Amino acid sequence: MLASTRRAERRSAFILIAPFLLIYLVLFIYPTLKMLELSFTNAPLIGEGDWIYFKNYVRLFGDRLFKTAVWNTGYFVVLTVVPNVATGLLIALMVDRLKGWTQSVVLAAFFLPYILPVSVVFLMWRWILDLQFGIAQYPIEFFYGERVPVFRTIPWFLPMVGLITIWWTNGFNVLLFIAGLRNISPEIYDAAALDGASRWQLFWKITWPLIWPVTALVATIQLILQLKIFDQVYLFSVGGRSEPTMVLVQYIYQEAFQRNRGGYAATVATALFVLIAALSVLQYQVLRARSAE
Amino acid sequence: MRRILKKALATAALIAFAAGAQAKETVVWWDFLSGGDGVRMKSLIDQFNKEHADSIEIQATTLEWGVPFYTKVQTSAAVGEGPDVMTYHLSRLPLGVATGTLREITPEELKAAGFSADNYAPANWKAAQVDGKQYAVPFDIHSVVLYYNKDKLAAAGLLGQDGLPKGLDGVDNFHAALEKLKAGGSEYGVSIHSAAGDSQWRIFYSLFSQQGGKFLSDNGKFLEGDNLDKAVKATSVVAKWVADGLAPKSTDYPASIALFTSGKAAMHINGVWEVPTFTDLGKQNKLGFEWGAIQLPTFFDQPATWADSHSFAIPNRKGKEISPEKLKAVLEVVKWMNEHSLFWATAGHIPAFSPVTSSDDFKKMQPNATYSTLAKTAVFDPSSKLAGVASPVYDAAGNFLMPAINGELDPQGAMEQMRDDLDGQTE
To answer: In this predicted complex, what is the ipTM?
Structure first.
């Protein structure tokens, strides 16, 4: 009797998760395994190749451009993840203090860039920073002494793309933080204020710990997103000196689509997969440890 | 009863309409022409559709020039998707054939459609072949030219009796002319698109070939022997313009044109495809000066100008090959376009179809007739899987040539790196 109910339960459970399982297997697990298989071959972009064992991986470790790409991807993560989370929280705190329609208008203003497609962002900023006619060249000339071809000057490239990325994507983080802030009961603030807590104390003792789950979420999303950076870096560097500012996904694209080396591109993709998995687990552990304190 | 009759009539009309639509062949067309030439291509397509209202309809889409276009074409052909006909650079043909993107057009098919090699320049027709097989039909030859501001050149005493620039041949003469123009109040002597490898490649390859250089030797080695020195020399010429403030540094494409149209630069080196831009601005009285265009001056021993060719090709759609009827329609389109390419010449390009270029109408067309002399000494990109639009050579031009022009790498080191980078990809 008991055994048969359990079997029935199991069966219905299986039926219920089957659609998800099927899609997950077909659209995620299968392509991932295929990628892994491809990384051991010398296949072109399309079609089969010969099995060459670990040759691609051996090559990966001696590949100068791969090292550049890993380094630049890491640099870009450092440039964007924490600043993006911090500005998101800062703007959310300010917007949260506004009331009524002013709040809606200001929030919309911050969110607006987020809905722009990357091509529009690229065209806008290319004109803003154009060496000859760009409006941003006036302040650059004033502070720096001369005009700078920002997207053709290696040390300026990634920081500027980072800045543009933060400007572009920050609105979504602000939205998440505002939702988090509204979840904190005002009574806690009232009670603390009665006890004579200062603004500073209110933030560090109440807001910061209570918003922490949202902060951890935003940081994780940002980390994964920025490790996969491609569009902006590709668009701003296309036609120019792409190698010194190459990031990992861009390198995969170049190897697969421009150089027709599907096997090696799969090897780089596998390396990126391992990197993202390892860093995400690490970050999750660190953030969990913090919240358990 | 009346209602039923009405319905029956409507159905009959619908069937008749559908049958009519079936007899009409649609040709899906992809191109990468988005500049002044794209506007002209659109009106050619409109004219074709009007003339063939009951037989063939072209459904055209314009995609992003360069890497985006060619990667999309390659991947869609491999999965049986993509257009029936597309524009293709002949410089990229070897790469396109090597990746299995292009369908051969057999001699029988060409003959049946009425194409004849006699109507094309032999080198041009041959450039549409790989290993003796035809993969494309040439449509034009396009190149880079020297645009000039007549008022500024006249003021600097650089304009001859015939209204054409004089005294620009030779590296030193050209440099002196630039200095004179700058001293005469121009911000730059010549404006170039210095922020990208593709534009710099065109100037570089012209100057390199003017020294008789061979970029890719027959044994598959890049910049072999003294070709490296010639490459360094070619790079140094342009790098010196930039270093001396005679040409703008790291400047983007639209800005390089705006420098010329706004009168800040006295001359401009760019593709013939910008001819319509200046023609249109001149017609609208927005230019404020008289302009002309000539073949690039001879800086070294012999005249030579980089050139490429737009052609029409048929993608090799795997598992969804083109039907014989569709192929017939496609070749009809291609033939019509070639026969009507006089209008295409207003986009600056030199038509590939020689009955058009030998016509009186073409010979009267300005400034095309002036610069079309370049076709005689035109040099095409090396025929290799690694060369052509959006190829590793173009990539290398962006990574090594472009920074050398702008003074971020020294020309010697840059050319050595470029050689090593390309040699490293030949395996």
So the answer is: 0.77
